Structure formats: C-alpha cells, structure tokens
C-alpha cells in the first residue's frame, strides 16, 4: 500500500509541476501559475490535487533561473563571437602588414639588383677606357720611337 501511495504521489507531483510549467510558459504569469499549480495529496487510495502557491513559486523561480542561465550563456557566446571576430581582424591586419613588408623587400631587392648591374656596367666601361688608354700609350710610344729613328736617320743623311 505504501509503495502504491508513493507512486501515486510521485505521479501527482509530476502532473502538478507540468501544470505549473505550462501556465508559466503560456504567459499567464505567477497568478496563472498559482491558480494552475497543485500539489499531490493522498486521501485513502484516491490521489487529490490541491492548489498551492509554493509550487507555483518554485516553478517560477526555476523558470527564472533557467532564463538567467540561458541569458548568461547567450552573453558568453556573444562575447566569444566578438573575441573571435577581433582575432580574425588582427590576423587579417598582420597578414596585410606581412604582405606589404614582403613587397618592400622585393622592391629593395630589385633596386639592389639594378644598382649592381649599373656598377658592373660602369666597371666594364672603366676597364675598356683603361684598355684604350693603354693602347693609345703604346701607339704614342711607337710613334715616338719612329720619330726618334726618323730623326736619327735624317741626321745621318746630312
């Protein structure tokens, strides 16, 4: 008998909580929850539902707490989303900076290569000018030798 009455009480409590929750969810507020709430009692073998305000208050508190938890979870999710967005922005900006630095390095490398080419060409020009000067010096020496010989030949002829 005691097991049966415990089972009946448990079923009645569940029904009362369901009624209370339904009233709160339906938007009737605490007044509707108080009117709809019930607690289980057993008189003899027949379960009876008795209206109570404590069950409604308990259900309303539970609903309020669940709502608060859901709101806080939503806030946390929003903040995490904001952090992720900001991190993405930072990563994008860092990528842009790296790309620009790479471009600068490439341009500097191009400038150095062109300067190296110019220096090589100038070196080639200087080498050619040196060769020309050496050849002109050789020609002048030979002309001087020829002139000296001609001068010596002319004196001998006199």
TrEMBL record:
UniProt keyword annotations, A-Z: Signal
The keyword Signal is annotated on this UniProt entry: yes
Domain of life of the source: Bacteria
Chain segments annotated as transmembrane: none
InterPro entries in the cross-refs: Serralysin-like_metalloprot_C (IPR011049), TAT_signal (IPR006311)
Keyword Signal listed: yes
Residues of the signal peptide: 1-26
Residue stretches of biased makeup (Basic and acidic residues): 63-88
Region annotation (Disordered) ranges: 54-88, 134-158
Protein name as it appears in the record: Uncharacterized protein
Organism of derivation: Kineococcus rhizosphaerae
């Amino acid at each position: 008998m005691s097991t049966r009455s415990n089972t009946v009480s448990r079923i009645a409590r569940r029904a009362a909580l369901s009624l209370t929750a339904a009233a709160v969810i339906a938007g009737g507020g605490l007044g509707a929850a108080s009117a709809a709430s019930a607690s289980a009692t057993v008189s003899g073998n027949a379960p009876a539902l008795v209206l109570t305000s404590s069950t409604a208050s308990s259900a309303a508190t539970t609903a309020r707490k669940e709502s608060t938890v859901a709101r806080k979870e939503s806030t946390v999710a929003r903040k995490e989303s904001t952090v992720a967005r900001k991190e993405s922005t930072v990563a994008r900006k860092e990528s842009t900076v790296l790309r620009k630095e790479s471009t600068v390095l490439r341009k500097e490398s191009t400038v150095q290569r062109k300067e190296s080419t110019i220096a090589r060409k100038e070196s080639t020009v200087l080498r050619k000018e040196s060769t020309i000067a050496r050849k002109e010096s050789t020609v002048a020496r030979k002309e001087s030798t020829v002139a000296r010989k001609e001068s010596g030949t002319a004196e001998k002829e006199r």
